[in-house]
């Protein structure tokens, strides 16, 4: 299970209205991409979904439960950041294990999950290395592995490819797509890159200036953009 319902989410920082009333339904197992220009509110919306930030008004329901009422460890959400956010002093294995240890999982269960995730993400040769001894692509795979071992029902990705060079972006994107097929988990993926959006999404949510411009399947948006902004952003022919 990993369904999500967003009801009229608004967020202001001081007098600035960053999210102006967002409504969205995500069904279990869906791959949803939030796309929009820098500063339109994508990361803020993702943090509100994760329960890392409170909205000014509105509700986020995960499998029917208001996310704010569920303790962070029980939300079944794992987030992957643009900057990887790994612990520099811990090995790859320990970066992936730490959250499970803190949650009180037994050692054999931790070993089992780390084994599966490192095999899925081709991380076995690097388990004893520290982040500084890895390339950017390998670091991001560790960050993704750390999310996978938690067996979340909802994955949140915030521009996970932005710090990678072009070839690695393609590879890592394909790995994320493969992960989605294997795990059948719900994934929400933020990007400002329309190629990532078009290739990964079951459903694209086009955001602009704190509002949703259009929601639809990639080809639906491409063929029938709701307005000039969507057409320009998705690259529809004029
Ligand atoms: P995106 O991820 O789409 O680039 P963000 O959600 O990070 O956009 O930011 C949306 C807007 O909210 C920006 O104008 C940003 O400056 C502002 N903002 C984000 N976080 C804060 C904060 N903690 N305090 C004040 N303003 C913020
Ligand atoms: Mg952002």
Automatic annotation (TrEMBL):
Residues 4-234 form the ABC transporter domain. It comes from the Bacteria. Transmembrane segments: none annotated. Its main location: membrane. It is a peripheral membrane protein. GO terms for molecular function: ABC-type maltose transporter activity; ATP binding; ATP hydrolysis activity. It is found in: Cell inner membrane. Keywords: ATP-binding, Nucleotide-binding, Transport. One of its GO terms (cellular component) is maltose transport complex. Belongs to the ABC transporter superfamily. This is ABC transporter ATP-binding protein. The chain holds residues 1 to 238 of 332 of the full protein.
């Amino acid at each position: 299970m990993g369904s999500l319902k967003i009801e009229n989410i608004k967020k202001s920082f001081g007098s600035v209205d960053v999210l102006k009333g967002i409504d969205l339904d995500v069904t279990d197992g869906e791959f949803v991409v939030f796309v929009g220009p820098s500063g339109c509110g994508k990361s803020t919306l993702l943090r509100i979904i994760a329960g890392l930030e409170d909205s000014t008004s509105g509700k986020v329901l995960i499998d029917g439960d208001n996310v704010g009422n569920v303790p962070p460890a029980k939300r079944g959400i794992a987030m992957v950041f643009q900057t990887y956010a790994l612990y520099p002093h811990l090995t790859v294995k320990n970066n992936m294990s730490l959250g499970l240890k803190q949650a009180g999982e037994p050692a054999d269960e931790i070993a089992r999950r780390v084994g599966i995730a490192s095999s899925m993400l081709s991380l076995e040769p690097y388990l004893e290395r520290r982040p500084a001894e890895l390339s950017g692509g390998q670091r991001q795979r560790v960050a993704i592995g750390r999310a996978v071992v938690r067996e979340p029902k909802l994955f949140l990705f915030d521009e996970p490819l932005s710090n990678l060079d072009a070839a690695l972006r393609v590879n890592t994107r394909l790995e994320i797509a493969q992960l989605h097929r294997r795990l059948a988990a719900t994934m929400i993926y933020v990007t400002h890159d329309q190629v990532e959006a078009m290739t990964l999404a079951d459903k694209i949510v086009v955001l602009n200036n704190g509002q949703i411009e259009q929601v639809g399947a990639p080809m639906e948006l491409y063929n029938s953009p709701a307005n000039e902004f969507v057409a320009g952003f998705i690259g529809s022919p004029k």
